[in-house]
Amino acid sequence: MMLVSFGSFAQEAPKEEKATEHYNENKFRQMYQEFSTPNEYRSASGAPGPAYYQQRADYKMDIRLDDANHHLYGYETITYLNQSPDVLEYLWVQLDQNMRAKHSKSPLIETSRINPYATAEGFAGEFLKEPFDGGFNIKKVLDSKGNPLKYTINQTMMRVEMPEALEPGKDFEFDIEWDYNINDHVDGRGRSGYEQTPDGNRSYVIAQFYPRMAVYNDVEGWQNSQFWGRDEFSLPFGSFEVNITVPSDHWLDGTGKLTNRKDVYTKEEMNRYERAMKSYDKPVIIRTQAEAEKLAQGSAETTTTTKTWKLEADFVRDFGWTSSRRYIADAMAVKVGKSDVMAVSIYPPEGNPLWEQWSTYAVAQTLKSYSRMTFDYPYHKAISVHAKNQGMEYPMICWNYGRPEPDGSYSDRVKYGMISVIIHEVGHNYFPMIVNSDERQWTWMDEGLNTFVQYVAEQDFGESYPAALKGDTNLDAYPSRRGPAAAIVPYMGGDQRYIAPIMSKGLNTYQFGSNAYAKPATGLNILRETIMGRDLFDYAFRTYSERWMFKHPTPEDFFRTMEDASAVDLDWFWRGWFYSTQYTDMAIGDVERYYVSNEINKEMKELAEARNIPLDRLQGLVYMVKEGSEDYKPEMKGKDPKEDAVALKEYLMDNFTPEERAMMKNPKYFYQITVEKPGGLVMPIILEYTYADGTTEMVTHPAEIWRLNDKQVTLSKGTSKEIVKVVIDPNLETADIDVTNNTWPKEATVDKFEEMKN
C-alpha cells in the first residue's frame, strides 16, 4: 500500500508573490521596529527598570462655591518634587478649564456645516449666543515667600518660571489664586459643571477645577499636549488637603477621606453611616429622599450660611467633588481582600427608584470583579454620583447617567445603560487612576482595558444579581454591548479607508467609541477566551496591573508584560489588532476525501520513472487516492471502510513494533481540509467537525499555522467516523466578518430583505 505524496499538504508561499511582498506580509516577525528600545527606566520584560522614576505633586486647597452666581473660587499651594535625574528649568501646569474660555481655540479644530433643519434652540446656540466664558481667571502666581512668579499661558497650559532651576531631589512650592464661571454641563455636555433643576436649584459635579501639574517622565519629558476636549489627562500622583465651603444645606462628597464628618453630618446621618459601615448585603440610606426634597425647598438665595467639608487623600492623581442640597445618599460595605470599602451612591430624586435599587450594588460588584482581575482596591470608598447625560471618572468618585421617566418608570435599556456606565466609571479607579497611563497619548490604555474588565464585571453582575436580568427581556446573561467578538464585526467589516489603528493619539482617533473602547476590549477578550486561555491571560493581566499600579506605563510595557508573564508570543496579535486596520475573514476552501489503495497512482509512477526508481521499491508506502481524482475508482466509495482498516492493520504489523502499534489509532476515513484567509488578520483556526452519528469534535489550530503561508493552509485528518460537516469558528470567537464561507458543505444563505418582504 502506498500514500499519495503529502507534498500537496505543504504550506508553500503563493508562487505569484514576490519575495519582498511576502516579507512585508510576514505577520510573525518580532516587533523590534515598532517598540521602543528597553532601557534602565523600562525593562524588556515590561516591568519598571532599576532607574524608573516619577514626579510628585502635593496640593493644599481652599475652595469656595458661590451657588447664587455659579462661580468657583480657589487658592492652592502646590509642592512639586523633582525625582527625575534631570534639572528642570520651568514647570508646566494644566489649565483645562481654558478649553471653555471665551476665545478658546477648541471649537475651531472641529468641522461644521449648516443644518437646514435646525431647531430654534440649536440655531441660537450656533449663531446667536455669546460664547460662554468659563476659562480660568488666574489672579496670582506666587512663590512660597509671596513673591510674584513669571508665567505664560498658552491655551490650556501654563509655564511657570522658577527663580532658579530645580535640581534632582529638590522640591518647589508655589501658590495660585484663581476663579472661573461654572458651566451648565447639560448644555454642551461638559465633563464638569452644574445641572439646573426646575425648582431653581443646581447639582454640581466639579472636576478639572484647579490648575494641575503636568507629567514629566522618561518617555515624553513634559507631557504638555493641549487639552482640546476629548483626549483626557496625564497627571502625577500626590497628596491632597482640600477644604470646600458650600451652602450649609448642601450634601457634599469627593476624593479622599472626610475628616470632619461629625461637623457636617447630622446626628441621625452619622448613625445611619455607622450602620452602613457594617452592612455587607444591602445599602443603608444615609440621607433620605424626603429629607432631600425638604431641603430642595431652599435655594441659593435663601441659604446664607455655609459649611466647610474637609477631605484628605494620599497617592491619588486627581481630585473631584459633588455638591447639592437635593442629594439622596446611600452606602454599604464591601469586603475587598482584608479591607472594608464603602460603596456609595449619591443622586437627586430624579434618579429614583432606579438608583436606589441598583447603583450601589453595581459599585460593589465593580470593586469585587476588578480586584479579582487586577489588585485589591486600595482606597476606602468608591462613589457613584447621578448626573444627567454624564459618564466621567476621578479618584474614588464618578458621575453617571441613567434617569427614569418622570413617573418613575424605566426600560431595561435605561437600567442596563445605568449599571454599565457605573461599572465602567467606577472601574476607571483601576485604569487610569491607579495604573496611570497617559490618556493624552493612548486613550485605549485606559478606556480599552477598562471596557474589557467592565465586560467581565457585567457578566459577574448578572450572576450575582439575577433579579436584574428578569426585567422586560427576562435574560439569561447580562446584555453586554462591548466585549464579545461578534459585537465588533460591523465595525471591523466597515470601510477601512476611514479608520485608523488603535495605536493612534487620543485626539486623532477615528471612530472613537469603536477604536478606543470596543476594539481593544474585544481584542483582550479574544486573547483571554480563545488565544491564551483564562489562566494564562488572567495571570499576565494581573501581573501588568500589579507592576504598574501607582506608576506610568506605556503600551510597550503592557504588551511586553503580557508575553513575559505567559510565555505566549503575541507580536503577531499586537501588530494585527492594534497597529493595523485589517480584519478577520477565514473560509473553508475545500474538503477532500481520500481512500487507501493497494495501487500505485499515476503521479507516483511518473515520479519513479523520472528518478529511475524501480516500482517494487515503492511497495512499502501507504498509498491514498483522492475522491474524484484520475486514480479514483467508484467502487472505492462504496466499499466497506473495514477493508481499509484491515489493510492498514497488515501494514502496521509489518512496519512497527507491538508497543508502537498499541499507541496508534485505527482511522477509517481520511480528509484534507483547505482553509483560506481572505482577511488580513491572523487568528487561530477553530474547526468543528460533525460526524455522521451526530457527535461533534472541536479542534483549535494556533495562529502560528499561518506563519509560512498567509493566504491558505491545508490540514489532514484521519478519523474512525465519517465527517458530514465542517465549520470554522462556530461560536463566533474571532470576529470573522463573513461567516457565509465558514461552512462545508456550503449552506444556502437567506436574503434578509426578501425574508422581511415575504
UniProtKB/TrEMBL annotation:
Domain of life according to the entry: Bacteria
InterPro entries assigned: Peptidase_M1_aminopeptidases, Peptidase_M1_dom, Peptidase_M4/M1_CTD_sf
The keyword Aminoacyl-tRNA synthetase belongs to this UniProt entry's keyword annotation: no
GO MF terms, alphabetically ordered: metalloaminopeptidase activity; peptide binding; zinc ion binding
Keyword line: Aminopeptidase, Hydrolase, Protease
SUPFAM superfamilies from the UniProt entry: Metalloproteases ('zincins'), catalytic domain
A Pfam family that the UniProt record links to this protein: Peptidase_M1
Single GO cellular component term: membrane
Biological-process GO terms, alphabetical: peptide catabolic process
Peptidase M1 membrane alanine aminopeptidase domain location: 409-577
Claim: Hydrolase is one of the keywords in the record: yes
Protein name: Zn-dependent aminopeptidase
Species whose genome carries this gene: Nonlabens marinus S1-08
